[in-house]
User: Fold this.
Amino acid sequence: MSKSEFDIVRAKSLVQEISANLAALPEDSAKYAELRAEVEDLKRMLAGTEVHLPQVEDQMKSVHNSFDRAATELRADGVRVGMFLKEIGRILGLD
Assistant:
């Protein structure tokens, strides 16, 4: 298979894996609601009898971008938590 060919079987497998990982997150996590919705849309597209590859590719790119945004937010949250923990440690005289 050339690099330019879209592997629909791999895409279905990947979307199932992503969906399972998202299902493990707390349901009340509003941060991931948009990502869950995009993945569900992609699952529906891939489950259909007629799969329109350009639409699937666009939706996969959208999911990828959503993951990038979520990763950036998580890193920022981690930095903020680290700053808070450092300040708490300083206040308690632990540093």
The mean pLDDT is 86. The helical segments are 8-23, 33-47, 53-91. The radius of gyration is 19 Å. The CA atoms of residues 45 and 51 lie 6 Å apart.
